[in-house]
Amino acid sequence: MTAMIPRVADISHxxxxxxxxxxxxxxxxxxxxxxxxxRSYRDPNYSERRxxxxxxKLLWGAYHFNTGxxxxxxxDNFLAVAKPDASTLLxxxxxxxxxxxxxxxxxxxxxxxxxxxxxxxxAIYSGNRLKExxxxxxxxxxxxxxxxRLWLCQYGPRAVLPSGFKSWWLWQYTGDGIGPNPHHxxxxxxNGIDLNAYAGxxxxxxxxxx
Length: 210
What we know:
With about 210 residues, the chain is of the alpha/beta class. It has one domain: TIM Barrel. Helices cover about 30% and strands about 25% of the residues. The chain has helices at about 20-25, 45-55, 70-80, 105-120, 130-135, 140-145, 200-210; strands at about 10, 15, 30-35, 40, 60-65, 90-95, 125, 150-155, 170-175, 190, 195. An 8-stranded mixed beta barrel has the order 1-3-5-6-7-8-9-11. Strands 2-10 form a two-stranded antiparallel sheet. Strand 3 and strand 4 (about 40) form a beta hairpin. The longest helix has 15 residues, at about 105-120.
């Protein structure tokens, strides 16, 4: 497999962060951290690591892990934890949740509530789940989802897009040690870290980020 260039790491309290300045020196441009899950869970490391990332001059983003709970309650929980400013990327993590899956119609509602609440679109993170469920909502809702930046989860040498998407914005090419190398980045300990490629310059990513 061809080696990729990791530009963004997505992490949560499960990861051990040792030195984000070392991550930046190794070529990382941004961090997307888990903020919340469902209607009540809040990642305990989110706020502290936002300060670390900004001190390292890394772009900062927050993601919400989906559940089948009431969507308004999930959005309220997410925004309360993420505390987004104008430079904070917001993301819906729409992937398989064996305990409680969010439906595609709920995902549409989540994205609309985020846009209404902060005045800009979030991004959507997904892989197989989006490919399998996008056609379950009306065409207008499909078009709305496709108007968002796609953070594609695809562990392999080739990016396979969901129907109707013309490109990916970020590509999570590896996680849990699966997919092309590299599987690690300085400053975040352990192998199998979730790492992401970006097809552009650092200045371009910064302009598009939030």
